[in-house]
Structures are given as C-alpha cells and as structure tokens.
C-alpha cells in the first residue's frame, strides 16, 4: 500500500511543536536559570520553594528555611548559574547547525533591545 503524505495541518502542528520545544529548551530555560542569581538566594524573599509558609511576611523569620536548607539553597543557586557552557552561539561541542546559529545571531539587536544577550542562550541544560 502506498503511504499518503500527511495532511498539511499535521505538518504545521509538527512545526509549531518543534518551535515550542526549541524555545523551552533554549531561551526559556536559559533565562530562568540565569535569573536565579538575581534573587534566588534571597532566603526570605525568594527561597525557591523552600519556604516554611506560603507568601508570609518577609519580616517573619519563621517562613525561612532552616540553616542547612538555606545554605544548600545558596549553593544550588550558585551551581545552577555559575556553569558557563553549552551556548548556542559559541557551539562548544560543534553540534549546533550553522543555519540555526546564524538565524539566532540575526536577532541579536532585537534581543539586546529587550535586555538579553543572545550569547547567553544555551542548548545544554546545566544541571
């Protein structure tokens, strides 16, 4: 039996899915990961889900994690944000297609206008 080509709607859905996946494993993850250094180690304000209370007052020390959890939190924020490897533009492993890197580089100014350096977008999840 001959195999018929997939409907155009299926092809378009697959393209949309690919864009979604690429966005989440590159820009979205890079931005979230890098932004943890800004506030992720602030024990009372943003303790990365280790709070002992939900949205309590930052003046209440009872909402903060204990000393061990707080120390581990600050350590993990540093680990997650200090690793500088796996960038798309740098292509350290020589495994990112040139066309993808060139296309991304063509948007450098638009990203810069939003305050983001495209050189920080990773293809490797650093955890």
List the helices and strands and how they pair.
Elements (H helix, E strand, L loop, with lengths): L7 H32 L27 H16 L15 H8 L2 H6 L14
3D architecture notes:
The protein has one domain. It is 49% helix and 0% strand. It has 4 helices and no strands. The longest helix is centred in the first third of the chain and has 32 residues, at 8-39. The radius of gyration is 20 Å and the shape is elongated.
Notable traits:
49% helix, 127 residues, mainly alpha
Give a brief rundown of this model.
The chain is mainly α. It has helices at 8-39, 67-82, 98-105, 108-113.
> What's the domain count?
1
**Major sheet: size, sense and barrel closure?**
none
Structural class comes to mainly alpha
The overall pLDDT average reads 83
Percent of residues in helices comes to 40-55%
The number of strands is 0
Tell me, briefly, the overall form.
Answer: elongated
Cα Rg? 20 Å
**How far is the first residue's CA from the last residue's CA?**
47 Å
* Helix and strand element order: HHHH
Poorly predicted regions are: none
Please report which band the strand proportion falls in: under 5%, 5-15%, 15-25%, 25-35%, 35-45% or over 45%.
under 5%
Number of helices: 4
